[in-house]
Amino acid sequence: MKKIIITESQYKRLFKEEMVYNIDGDIDFKGNELSNGGPVSDQWTSILNDLDDLLDEAGIRYKITAGNDKFHKRANPKSRHAIGCAVDFAIRRSGTGIRKSVFNKKYASKVFEVMQKLVNKYSSSHDFSWLDEYNRGTGHSTGGHIHMSIGRQFCGGTKGKEIKSTQKLPSDAGKFNSDDIKDTPTSTSSNSSDLIKMGSKGDKVVELQTKLKSLNYDLGDTGDNEDGIDGVFGSNTQKAVRKFQTDKKIRVDGIVGPETKEELGLV
Questions:
Q1: I want to staple 54 with a disulfide (CB 3.0 to 4.6 A). Which of 107, 114, 146, 217 is the partner?
Q2: For the segment 81-90, what is each residue's pLDDT rounded down to a tens digit?
Q3: In order of start, what are the domains of the chain with their CATH numbers?
Q4: How far is CA 246 from CA 146, 155, 159, 226, 265, in A?
Q5: Closest CA relative to residue 184, chosen from 70, 241, 263, 80
Q6: d(CA 149, CA 126)
Q7: Distance CA 264, CA 267 (A)
Q8: What CA–CA distance (Å, rounded) separates 146 from 162?
Q9: In this structure, what is the dihedral angle of CA atoms 117, 102, 80, 16, given to the nearest 10 degrees?
């Protein structure tokens, strides 16, 4: 089994970017897991290059999140990941992962179209198959992703597709619109007057605190009703915002910018 044959710049971009695994509810950053785990089959070269071209053409940002990596070797040593015959990728928006509902509404129809093109091209020659792990429970450890596999014959095993069933487009899938998936600015690059952060006061803070309280985030006991709703963005509100951002797997900075407002329904 050879190491994947692609250019150095492609390898660094596809396989050495930081990856995020969600284990037991905690975000654990594991850099270089793919290269540290082991090589993948050289048969992935054309598949991954085609995937990159198709997603780039659609304006969809993504990351390869798993291959022959340490996590999968530990979790299931007999899996196709552990022999280099499986690769996962996940959609990225503003540099972070997305939830199933966002994937279905904004990305699924195009991603399914892209994956069908790969199936049409590589199913016969590579036993290529794939799974939508945004809508299946098996993606819980590494977050929502698309799982791809090729035949074990390319990794020292016997011939045969891993996944024989056709993937079904989610019932709530929306029509793909490239304008809907353009990255929104992160909180640090937004106009400072639009941000709600430490020291902010007034009605916009009350609205934020009321929303957080309705979602059962602890704001302390300040305010007229001793429920933390006092119109002042202090340390308790900041902690609640950071906890919310962590729960939603978005940028964790304790500042309420465009992305956090969208998740809270404040825009």
A1: 114
A2: 888 889 888 8
A3: 8-181 (no CATH), 187-264 (1.10.101.10)
A4: 22, 38, 42, 25, 16
A5: 263
A6: 9
A7: 8
A8: 14
A9: 100
